[in-house]
Every structure is written in structure tokens, then in C-alpha cells.
Amino acid sequence: MIKKISVLLLAIALLLSVPACTMPDAIFSDSVNSGGEDDGTRDSADIYSFMFKLGEFDMQLPVSYSAMSSRGWAFSEASETADEEQTAADKEVKVYTADSKLEPGEYSDYIPITQGDSVINARFYNGSRDQKAVSECQVVGIMLDAEFGNVPAFILHKDDLSIGSPYKAVTDSCGKPSYIEKTLKSTGELAAINDVKFMETEEETVETLFYKLTDHSFISFGIDTFGTASDSVVNITIENDTEPYKPYDYSKEYKYKPENIDLYTGPNLLGKQFTDFAYKYEGNLYTMPMPVRKLLDDGWEFVSGYGERIPMGTTMDGLVMRKGNTAVRLLVHNYDTKYAHTAVNCYAVSMEACLTGPNVDVMLFKGVSLGSTEKALVDAFGKDFVKKHPLVDEEGNYLENAESFRYDVPDMPDCYIEKTVGEEYTLYSCVMPDDVPTITLPVSITDIGDTGAELLGDIRKHIDIYVTNDTHLIYRVYFQNCPEYVVDENKIIEEQMEAQRKKEKEEWEKQQKEEAEKNKG
Prior knowledge:
Blueprint: E1 2-3, H1 8-13, E2 51-54, E3 57-60, E4 63-64, H2 65-69, E5 74-75, H3 77-80, H4 88-91, E6 101-102, E7 111-115, E8 118-125, E9 132-133, E10 138-145, E11 154-156, H5 167-174, E12 179-184, E13 190-193, E14 196-197, E15 205-214, E16 217-224, E17 232-240, H6 251-255, E18 278-281, E19 284-287, E20 290-291, H7 292-297, E21 301-304, E22 315-323, E23 326-333, E24 347-348, E25 350-354, E26 362-363, H8 374-381, E27 388-390, E28 405-408, E29 416-421, E30 425-431, E31 440-441, H9 453-456, E32 461-468, E33 474-481, E34 485-487, H10 489-520
Parallel strand pairs: 31-34
Antiparallel strand pairs: 1-34, 2-3, 2-11, 4-10, 5-7, 6-9, 7-8, 8-10, 10-17, 12-13, 12-15, 13-14, 15-16, 16-17, 18-19, 18-26, 20-24, 21-22, 22-23, 23-24, 25-33, 27-28, 28-29, 29-30, 30-32, 32-33
């Protein structure tokens, strides 16, 4: 029976003896901190309070629509009725009114709302379990654009940033952005992300500086790079769908350390092959899975999901950690077999890097990183990568897409790399069976049910690398490694028998003592 155990990294230390999926010796040596240099950027935690002044009123996202309407904001006439002369294509775009319904967990598009002559766009979110009208939902996003005309007075509570602020004022106030997108002013088409070019162009562009925690928790500043407003803010979007950031005191949890935490030793070299789960992340070397407290030691901070207690043997999604203006969302697993724990005493079993966030300085084996070419990735796989099998469907029929193949991984039975070509991206997935390697270790309980298994899916050990089809550059990397273990049931039985013998002995000794005191009386 497949089980999970507390002594996680002891198992990893034993992986060297498992021939099914070998790993380089370097991974199991003492960890080496090769932290990146301090770039001198300011800490910007306070921008993530998502507080701002709109007109005469102070606000903080998320905010109820009723609070907005009480301050004079209402749906514009354009958003109250659909134009009867809409084309068929236009009619595919949902037109929202105050009475439009949002399903649980649904976000609206950005909708024009007005206060007198002033116009902004607002995004709504239904965070309840029931269907609700837009007007009953929370406002989670505010968008202002100089092209709207009649933009209301707006001040972000971070050095009074607003429409018209210079580029330098933004970076001086908020620090280095999470990432910068450059888009064509005429069409909005993506031209570049940071230094990664998606097209060569001499057209006018807008640079958008993103300060991002999650997909729905960010602030962006659009900077016009041409014209009279050159190098100044022309649009601002502030969006947040969760409780604003609060500093978290994890000192009490940190003092208690489950025994499995000390068994982790990080790598001192990058992995030698794709399946080593050894990589450099923001200047530090790690191997997956790793203790969450290792990230804390290396300067990462909790943002959300940190206070929830995770039952033993289960997986939780939603932990967000931040280092400067780089934030990453993690899957976290509790390998302790005795207690529920908050994230500080658990293991990160997944990690991501993506050009559009988290735009992390990540390096894989042989120097492969975000922005690397597809050729560099294939070269890193090695010459044996040419061995391939056409993909088949569930019924065993060969798929017609000749560009998608399954490749063998040399010297690793049952491991494979699957290349799948989609419309926009080519995905390289390295997959290892969940039971490779399988480690047998004794634990003191008979079962741990993983209530978070659906978060991991059927495959718990894989690395996904996304390559854009137009530029053939690596766009996103995703790791997941959540090992499972076999319990030594004979050891459990021995422990139970020993416990029973100890109990019987204590009862006998107690009985003898009571009889002796009775005879003495």
C-alpha cells in the first residue's frame, strides 16, 4: 500500500541506491547558499496594501460595489444596455449591467463606471458560493487610462503615484518591477517581456511595469514611450481579490521543527540531467521537494496561505511567498505523521518560473533558463533524445499530429519526455512514475490519506517546460515532485506489540503495588 511518511528527506537520501531513477551525487552533499547580490532596490511591501485615493475618498481593494455607489459611482449608460447594431462578433463579448449574474468564483471583464463626467473601469468578482448580480459583488480591480478622458483624481498610497508620474518616480518608489511588458500601441500585441523579444518593431509601444503577487493581485503602470507624454504613466491598473498583505509572525511555529526538516540537504551543483530536480532559483540552489523554511531563510516572505493548518499527509494549494517584487505560488505538503502544521513546517512540492510572473531568475541543468532557445533545451537533453515514439490516444491509435512525440529517458526505465505542439506553445514534459523510486521506511501509523491529491493530479513527479512557437524561446517552467512511500507494516506491528507489552507490564506493576499496600494495611 502506498503511504506517506514523516521522514521525507531520509528517503531522498536513499534514492542513490534506487537504480530506477538515479541522481547525481552532488545533490546530496551539504547545501551551498549562493545568494544573488543585493541590487539596492527598495522594499515595496506597502504597495501591496492596495490602498489608493480615488477622487475625495480613500479606498482599499477589494471593496464592495455598494461602497463605491455610495460615493457616487454607477454603471454608465454604455454598460447598461447593449447596442442593437452589434455585429455577430461583438455579441460574443458579454455586456454587463448591474443585474448581470456572476457565477461563484467568476470574474467580470473590466466595466465602465462613472461619477459625473469621470470614467474608470472596474472588475467585479463573486467570491461567494451562490450566483450573484454584479452589483452585489466586490470590486477587485480599478483601471484608469488617460485616453478615457475625464479621468478622476487618483493617488496610489506610495509616494503619490498617479497618471502623469514619470517612469523614474515609479521605479524609485516601488523598486524593480516583477516584469515589464512592451506592447504595440496600435494593436496591443506583445513585442517583448523584459529582454526577451517576441518581434522586431519600430512602431510606437507602451511599456507596462508589473508589480505582481498573483494573476489577480497586482499593480501595473503603463508608460508611453513616444509623444508628449514620453516616459510618463498613461494608465494604471490596481487589482486584488484577497485580503491585503499583512506581516505574519511565524516565530512560534518556527521554533518547533519536525524531525524530517533537518534531513534536507540542498545541492551544491546544478543537476546533470532533466530529472534531477536540482536548480538555481533567485541565486540559491535547491532540490525539490524542500522545506518551506529554507525559502524563509533565503529571504522569501509569506504573503497568503501561511496561517492555514495542513493536516498530516495532505497537500495544500495557495501558499504565496514574495522576495522583493517577485512572488511565487506553491503547492505545500505536510510529511509529518503526527501533527497538522502551518506551511512553515511543511515542504514545497512544486515551484514555477514564468516570464509574466513569477519572473524568477531560474537556471536548470546545462544552463537552460527562461528565455533560452528550444535548441538549447534539446541539446541539453542529449543525443539519445532522438529516440521517439508517436503519441497515441486512450484507445491506442496513433495521433495525426506528427510534431508530438514521446521520447525515452536514457537509463531511466518508465521515465519519458513528452513533446506536445499546441497552437501557441510547445510543451516538453518530463514524467516519472509515482512509484519510482519507492522507499520502504517504518512509521508509527498505518495510513495517511492525501485529501489534496486532486491538486497534484495523476502525475506527481514531473517537470514542464513551455516554448513559444513564434520565437522558440522558453516561456515557463513548472516543477512538481511529491514522493510517495511504502510503509513497513512489519515494523508497525512490532511497535504495536511492544506498546501492548509495555502497557500490560505497567498494569501488572500497578496491581502488584496496590496488593502490597493492601497487605501492609
